[in-house]
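Tokens as discussed.
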């Protein structure tokens, strides 16, 4: 059962504290370096600033090669809350941004900013916060973050994250134990800068609001204990207590157990038991950042060991090469069998791969042991199962079992023995009689487990991404199919609508066309009937009009035939009388045209019965109004007119060179059988023309004449077939040829005369 607050405070006041299991008592050797004040170092030729010096993520670089920087200028930035920036330790020029070997047990290279100091040590603009008690806590936390402060006790956890109290805090512990042998940096810091550490404690009290503050110092540091008592005596909430010297009393969980008697859960944090802990170096950096606006660009480093002539503590700029510190302490390489420099103490430190690695924010000691000072060349022997390691373990683990499983690669079984609860203090290895580097095996096993976890997490993330991608593709496919179906349905609907609209439009167009046709027909009927009703035409007048139209058509036809025959005759003859014949033909054609024009002028065109030409409407009216007897009389009159026209054309164009024309003329004048046959043919042609004209009432006169001519040809051919004598056939062919020639000639003459009349 955990102790309550009042009981713990009472025991602290009585200096009756608890303890932790295990632990060892190695030789401290602190007297080597704690006798002199903290010194300063000269500016090195180069400063190597790693971009990552804390637990978390590294920031992105804000400078480029060739840039000039000022002391305290921010070099990196990141929006990640677990990233803190680094700053320029002095003014100078960025000579390179490249990978360099850093202070890490692996000896791997990390990205660093290389700065060449200009010697001016010019500060950038600082922004201290006045009256921080009146400021919002978020402003103070942001200032701590921007100052680049991380835990300086060795863990390097971002201080602004740790300072955010999410649970009620009863005890704020300031760790001044510094339990590892040789290290005296915190000891000298408390002796010389106790008041500034107190200022940092006040700022943390304002941010966290604990009930009690406990400053814990080991009893092997009496000067530091007195200095902190003096600076904290004016505050009743601060207790400065001495802790029995025992390694690793400075461990977070061990110190909490010693002061409060409470144990932090395996997977928990100190805040879960109402406690929060900070290192004295961290308190000093917080006061620098809030009260003076200075970022974390330097720290106290212990240079100790029997291989240096002047062990001491120095203020080292972040990024200072280790070689510069060794030169300050006068490194005696002859005192070592093999050049060896350990960063950290003999229990938890690691050997540096090079003396050119830089000092970082968590560097607190450089140990340079002489020959036989430390048993560095351990000769690993077989485990004798003495259980001394289990007795020394401050976390109550079974180091022997963890060692066997870790060495055999049985990582699952090693985890079953709570491998990750090991704080790597080295107490087990310190007491091992077989000189087995137990912590080395634990670190290696932890690293392998972390790698497996990372790979498993990556595989799991890859699986999740694959499944998410697969689900996304399936969803997109379904959406596309749905869109296609919707589009197809829309197209189908649009097609149906278009077809329906087209059908409706077609129906509308048909209906409109029918309506227009009906309206036109009705208007024509009204236009035709209305004048007829207003001015009725007698039946005899209609008959006269029909007869006049037929006569005009026949006269025009005769004129065309005479002109054509005259042209052919003129072309076929070469006698001296051709000119005279041509003249007579022209005269005859002119007379025919004159008669035709006269007949057209005499026609009663002014009759209001219709606006169309008589030649267009007369045949139609005649065909609809004349009786059979009247048609017969009209046919006879037409035949007589054609016969007269033909006779006149024959007389005009006949020449001695055309026996066929003479025969035709003779047949026309005499009453011989041949003449009678031709008369019959002419009558048949006249009847055919009349019948054709009556059938096509709206056709032009020219078309009617052409059809009549064809009918004449057919009639001539049929009559010729009736008379089968050779003589009759020969004469019929001659007559047909003459008729065709006359028609062509007359047509050409008519066109020429029409052109002349127009001119």
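Sequence:
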């Amino acid at each position: 059962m955990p102790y309550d607050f009042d009981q713990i405070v009472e025991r602290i006041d009585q200096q009756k504290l608890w303890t932790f299991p295990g632990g060892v008592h190695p030789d401290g050797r602190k007297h080597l370096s704690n006798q002199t004040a903290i010194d300063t170092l000269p500016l090195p030729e180069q400063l190597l600033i790693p971009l990552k010096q804390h637990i978390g993520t590294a920031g992105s670089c804000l400078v480029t090669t060739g840039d000039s920087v000022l002391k305290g200028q921010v070099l990196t930035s990141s929006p990640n809350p677990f990233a803190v920036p680094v700053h320029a330790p002095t003014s100078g020029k960025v000579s390179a941004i490249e990978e360099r070997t850093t202070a890490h047990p692996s000896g791997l290279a990390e990205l660093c900013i290389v700065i060449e100091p200009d010697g001016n040590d010019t500060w950038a603009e600082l922004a201290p916060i006045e009256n921080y008690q009146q400021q919002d806590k978020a402003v103070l936390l942001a200032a701590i973050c921007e100052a680049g402060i991380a835990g300086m006790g060795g863990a390097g956890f971002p201080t602004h994250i740790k300072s955010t109290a999410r649970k009620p805090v009863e005890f704020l512990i300031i760790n001044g134990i510094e339990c590892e042998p040789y290290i005296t940096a915190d000891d000298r810091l408390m002796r010389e800068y106790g008041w500034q550490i107190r200022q940092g404690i006040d700022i943390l009290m304002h941010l966290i609001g604990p009930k009690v503050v406990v400053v814990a110092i080991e009893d092997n540091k009496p000067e530091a204990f007195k200095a902190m008592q003096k600076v904290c005596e004016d505050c009743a909430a601060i207790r400065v207590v001495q802790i029995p010297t025992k390694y690793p009393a400075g461990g977070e969980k061990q110190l909490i157990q010693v002061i409060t008697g409470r144990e932090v859960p395996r997977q928990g944090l100190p805040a879960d038991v109402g406690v929060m802990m900070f290192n004295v170096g961290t308190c000093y950096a917080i006061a620098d950042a809030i009260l003076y606006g200075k970022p974390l660009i330097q720290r106290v480093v212990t240079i100790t060991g029997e291989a240096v002539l002047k062990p001491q503590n120095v203020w080292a700029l972040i990024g200072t090469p280790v070689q510069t510190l060794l030169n300050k302490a006068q490194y005696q390489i002859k005192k070592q069998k093999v050049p060896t420099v350990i960063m950290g103490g003999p229990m938890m430190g690691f050997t540096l791969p090079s003396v050119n690695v830089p000092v970082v924010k968590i560097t607190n000691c450089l140990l340079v042991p002489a020959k036989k000072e430390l048993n560095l060349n351990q000769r690993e022997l077989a485990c004798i199962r003495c259980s001394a390691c289990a007795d020394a373990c401050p976390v109550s683990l079974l180091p022997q079992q963890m060692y066997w499983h870790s060495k055999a690669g049985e990582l699952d079984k090693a985890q079953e023995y709570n491998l990750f609860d090991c704080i790597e203090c080295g107490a087990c290895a310190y007491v091992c009689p077989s000189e087995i580097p137990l912590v080395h095996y634990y670190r290696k096993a932890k690293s392998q487990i972390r790698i497996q976890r990372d790979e498993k997490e990556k595989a799991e993330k890859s699986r999740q991404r694959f499944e998410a991608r697969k689900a996304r593709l399936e969803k997109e496919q379904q959406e596309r199919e749905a869109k296609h179906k919707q589009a197809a349905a829309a197209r189908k609907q649009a097609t149906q609508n278009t077809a329906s609209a087209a059908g409706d439009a077609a129906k509308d167009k048909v209906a409109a066309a029918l309506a227009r046709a009906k309206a036109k027909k009705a208007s024509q009927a009204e236009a035709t009937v209305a004048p007829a009703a207003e001015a009725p035409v007698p039946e005899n007048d209609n008959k006269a009009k029909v007869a006049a139209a037929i006569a005009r058509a026949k006269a025009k036809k005769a004129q065309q035939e005479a002109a054509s025959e005259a042209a052919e005759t003129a072309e076929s003859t070469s006698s001296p009388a051709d000119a005279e014949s041509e003249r007579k033909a022209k005269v005859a054609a002119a007379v025919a045209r004159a008669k035709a024009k006269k007949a057209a002028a005499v026609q009663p065109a002014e009759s209001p019965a219709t606006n169309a030409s008589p030649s267009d409407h007369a045949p139609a009216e005649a065909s609809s109004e004349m009786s059979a007897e009247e048609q017969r009389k009209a046919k006879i009159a037409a035949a007589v007119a054609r016969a007269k026209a033909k006779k006149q054309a024959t007389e005009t164009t006949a020449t001695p060179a055309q026996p066929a024309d003479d025969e035709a003329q003779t047949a026309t004048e005499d009453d011989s059988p041949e003449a009678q046959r031709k008369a019959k043919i002419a009558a048949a042609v006249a009847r055919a023309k009349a019948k054709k004209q009556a059938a096509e009432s709206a056709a032009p006169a020219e078309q009617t004449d052409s059809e009549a001519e064809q009918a004449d040809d057919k009639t001539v051919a049929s009559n010729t077939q009736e008379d089968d004598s050779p003589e009759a056939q020969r004469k019929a062919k001659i007559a047909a040829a003459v008729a065709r020639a006359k028609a062509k000639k007359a047509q050409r003459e008519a066109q020429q005369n029409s052109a002349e009349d127009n001119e």
